[in-house]
Design goal:
Elements lengths: L1 H15 L6 E4 L3 H8 L9 E7 L13 H8 L3 E5 L8 H5 L1 H13 L7 H12 L2 E2 L6 H9 L8 H8 L8
Length: 171
């Protein structure tokens, strides 16, 4: 089954990179994680991170619920958001991006100093309990992303508002 294949790949990865101290997975479901982690005598290095789609525009779970994060944390994994600004998402999440970006810009304008919509989106990711990876062709955007995100906190009401904007997980 799926677990057997994943375990075989993981064993090969461990054998091919013996000096590696940390390994990660991408887009693993709770069931796939359990298949790798449970009763696995070949497991020498547990995955430390699961890279998942996680953004204001798309985060599995009900509004305000971080069940996806909690499932990973319960298994000892950090979630790292890919597409933390929603740009690589499809379906309903992609169609909802203009609404999400407008709301994030509006929220950011309430802070002193004002924050960009992108900074608000990245702050939501961090404050929800995930890490993020991002890129930009513009150095100024990267500097903003990597400095301003960490020098303020969103209010509980702003977190709740932004959490409520996500597209349905099945979309």
């Amino acid at each position: 089954g799926d677990s057997e294949g994943i375990r075989g790949q993981w064993a090969a990865l461990q054998a091919s990179a013996p000096a590696t101290t940390s390994l990660a997975v991408s887009n693993f479901s709770p069931e796939q994680l359990d298949g790798l982690l449970a009763n696995n005598p070949e497991l020498r290095r547990r995955p430390v991170l699961n890279q998942l789609p996680w953004s204001v525009a798309y985060h599995p779970g009900d509004a305000g619920s971080y069940s996806c994060l909690e499932e990973n944390q319960r298994r000892g994994l950090q979630v790292q958001a890919w597409a933390p600004l929603g740009g690589s998402l499809g379906g309903a999440a992609q169609r909802g991006l203009p609404r999400v970006r407008a709301a994030c810009t509006e929220v950011g304008a309430r802070y002193h100093p004002p924050r960009s919509g992108a900074v608000v989106q990245l702050r939501w990711v961090v404050q929800s309990g995930a890490a993020f990876t991002t890129t930009s062709r513009k150095r100024a955007h990267l500097e903003e992303d990597l400095t301003e995100v960490f020098d303020f906190e969103l209010t509980e009401s702003d977190m709740a508002l932004l959490s409520s904007l996500a597209a349905p997980a099945a979309a």
